[in-house]
Amino acid sequence: MMPPKAIDVTLSPKLEQSRDDFVSYLRFERRLAEHTIEAYATDLKDFFQWWDAKGKDDLTDISANHLEVYGQSLNKRGLARRTVSRRISCLRSFCSYQHRQGLLSADPTFNLETPKLSKDLPRVLSIDEIDQLLEAPDLAKPVGIRDRAVLELMYGSGLRVSEILNLPLDGLRLEEQFVLVTGKGNRERAVPLTAPSSRAIRNYLSEVRPGFTKKKDPGTVFVNYRGGKLSRMGLWRILNGYAKQAKLPEDFHPHVLRHSFATHLLEGGADLRVIQELLGHASVTTTEIYTHVDRGLLREVHQQFHPRP
């Protein structure tokens, strides 16, 4: 059963202004990605609707007790632990911002506990499953040629979905065999291209993209057949369709290609710091989740390289 949705109500002008100010801070000072800003705005609106339903619009009244009650209300609505954790984290950021601006005399989230999340290991595809997925697009069709290029780039270079969708044409360096990507926090990085990725992208650029962009061109590498920029949901549907065609597990998610890229590199002997740079992680701690290498492989490497195996 799906959890009940919160009733969408119009916020008071005062609360709307508070949300808009916070969103501007996220966009122009913290320079977060748009989809991250949208998530913050949605989470904050949920709290404001709850606050408004209490007959309040003065944020200076917020206390730690209010936030604990709100957290309990999220659990009662049957929301996933990850969603509850994200909304509490959003409130931490918002209240901290309000406090720094002098709008709150104290930060009510200072001692607020966030639900602990287990660090689930990423789902990883085997090499055979990757091959099945990459072979799924029909290269006799224009969209199949485009989709093969998307899949090759996602697995071959470990790009995020947002990085694929926003990749500009001038980010391609096909002669030098790499691509310039702008990731989280507007950090730019150069990621090498595999030979299959380069071939697939060249084929798409020469044979398909010109026909798709006859009427309009958004300037991004990957476009739909009408010449518009691919949407996140549209790309998800495309990839999910190929996953079903390749008979991959039902829990397939586009991010699985990025997980597989990192894990296969690590299993092949790549240094964790190099993988961190390729993935665009700000901290190697984030990358360490990929160290779930098969124990048999670890023993094999240990025996091969240790002077006294």
From TrEMBL:
Full protein name: Tyrosine recombinase XerC
Which SUPFAM superfamilies would you find in this protein's record? DNA breaking-rejoining enzymes (SSF56349)
* Keywords on record: Cell cycle, Cell division, Chromosome partition, Cytoplasm, DNA integration, DNA recombination, DNA-binding
Q: Mind telling me which InterPro entries this protein's record contains?
A: CB, DNA_brk_join_enz, Integrase-like_cat_sf, Integrase_catalytic, Integrase_recombinase_N, Integrase_SAM-like_N, Recomb_XerD, Tyrosine_recombinase_XerC/XerD
Q: Which domain of life is it from?
A: Bacteria
Origin species: Eiseniibacteriota bacterium
Its cellular-component GO annotations read: cytoplasm
- Major localization listed first in the record, in broad terms: cytoplasm
Q: Where is the Core-binding (CB) domain?
A: 13-99
